[in-house]
Design a protein that fits this description.
mainly alpha; 0% strand; 2 helices; 83 residues
C-alpha cells in the first residue's frame, strides 16, 4: 500500500508543473494573437497599409516572451545570474 500512496503523491506534485508548462505556451500564443488583432483593427481604422499590424505583432510577441521569462524565473533567485 505505501507504494500506491507514493505514486499518488508524485502525481499530485506534478500537476502544478504541468499547469505551469502549459501556461507558458498559452501566454505566448494569446499575447501574439492579441497584438495581431489590435494591430489589424488599428490598421483598418487609420488605413496605414499594414504597418500597425507588424508593429503590434512584434509588441505582442515581445509581451509574450516577457510573460514566459516571468513564469520561468518565478520563485528563483535571479540575482545569482547577475555579475
Amino acid at each position: 500500500m505505501p507504494e500506491k500512496d507514493q505514486k499518488v503523491s508524485k502525481t499530485k506534485n506534478s500537476y502544478p508543473q504541468m499547469l505551469s508548462a502549459s501556461l507558458i505556451g498559452i501566454n505566448l500564443v494569446v499575447s501574439t494573437i492579441v497584438g495581431l488583432v489590435i494591430g489589424y483593427y488599428l490598421d483598418r481604422f487609420f488605413n496605414s497599409g499594414g504597418v500597425l499590424i507588424i508593429v503590434f505583432l512584434i509588441v505582442g510577441i515581445f509581451a509574450g516572451f516577457i510573460q514566459v521569462f516571468r513564469e520561468v524565473f518565478k520563485g528563483s533567485d535571479v540575482s545569482k545570474f547577475k555579475k
